[in-house]
Amino acid sequence: MHAPETAHEFSPMDMTPLEQTLARIEGDARSGQSLLLYALVKTLSIPQGGHSYLLTKLREMTPETRQLAYGLMELMAQGGTATAEWKAAEGRMDQAIRG
Predict the structure, then answer these.
(1) Which of 1, 38, 55, 95 is the most exposed place for a label (fewest CB within 10 A)?
(2) What would the pLDDT profile of 39-93 be if each residue is shown by its tens digit?
(3) What is d(CA 51, CA 56) in angstroms, rounded to the nearest whole number?
(4) Where are the domains of the chain?
(5) What is the phi/psi pair of residue 56, to 5°?
(6) Higher pLDDT residue, 2 or 35?
(7) Which residues of 8-44 are buried (b: 16+ CB within 10 A; e: fewer)?
(8) How far apart are CA 72 and CA 40, in angstroms?
(9) What is the spatial distance between Cα 29 and Cα 36, in angstroms, rounded to a whole number?
(10) pTM flag (> 0.90)
(11) How far is Cα 37 from Cα 97, in angstroms, rounded to an integer?
(12) Which class for 86: exposed (0-12), middle (13-18), buried (19 or more C-beta within 10 A)?
C-alpha cells in the first residue's frame, strides 16, 4: 500500500483567483476593493510572516471580492505563493499600484 495522494496531486493548482485578482488590480488599481486584495496578496507573499491580515477586512469586501480572497488564501495553503506565476503576478500588481 502506498500513501494516499493529496487533491492537488491529481490536478494542477487552480490559479484563477490570482489571475482574476491581477486583472482587477490592473483594471482599477485605485479602487478600494483592489487595494484590499493587493494588501492580502502582499501579506500572503511573506514567507513565515504569519500571514497577519485583519480578517475584519473581509467585511469591507464585496461578496465577489471576498470569493477572490478565499481563493487566494487557498492558493497560499497549497503552496501557490512559491510559484513563478504568483511572483510574476505580484510584480505586475506592484507596478499597477505604483502607477
Answers:
(1) 1
(2) 999 999 987 666 667 788 889 999 999 999 999 999 999 999 999 999 999 999 9
(3) 14
(4) 15-98
(5) -65, -20
(6) 35
(7) eeeeeeebebbebbbebbeeebeeebbebbbebbebb
(8) 8
(9) 10
(10) no
(11) 11
(12) buried
